[in-house]
Amino acid sequence: MPVPARELAQRLAFGASLRLIRANAGLTQEELAHAAGLDRTYIGSVENGRRNLSLKAMWQLADALQVSPRAFFPVKETENFTPGQST
Fold it and tell me: What is the DSSP letter of 67?
């Protein structure tokens, strides 16, 4: 079943953020996978937008990278987000 365009864009954006944070941490996919308790192929699939990861996996990745899960979702400069605001 094809992935809707918006969902694919979201997966790709998340994957790009993960890849950048991982690279800045100086880790390979394999090293990150080991630190997070995940499989290396899973990391590659997330980075390439092929996998819709769980919240648990997102927290495992954040903990392994020593970042807040928020780091995976950079806010655009043009967005004015207020906590509690619906989207």
Answer: S
User: Checking phi first, is residue 45 left (phi over 0); if not, alpha (psi -120 to 50) or beta?
Assistant: alpha
Q: How do residues 38-75 score in pLDDT, each as one tens digit? A: 999 999 999 999 999 999 999 999 999 999 999 999 76
Q: What is the dihedral of CA 50, 30, 59, 19, to 10 degrees?
A: -60
Measured distance CA(1)–CA(12) in Å, rounded: 18
Distant-in-sequence, close-in-space partners of 27: CB < 8 Å, separation ≥ 6? 35, 65
Secondary structure percentages of the chain, helix, strand, coil, to 5: 60, 0, 40
Beta-carbon contacts of 41 under 8 Å, excluding residues fewer than 6 positions away, are: none
pTM of the predicted protein model: 0.83
Q: How far is CA 54 from CA 26, 41, 79, 81, in A?
A: 24, 15, 25, 24
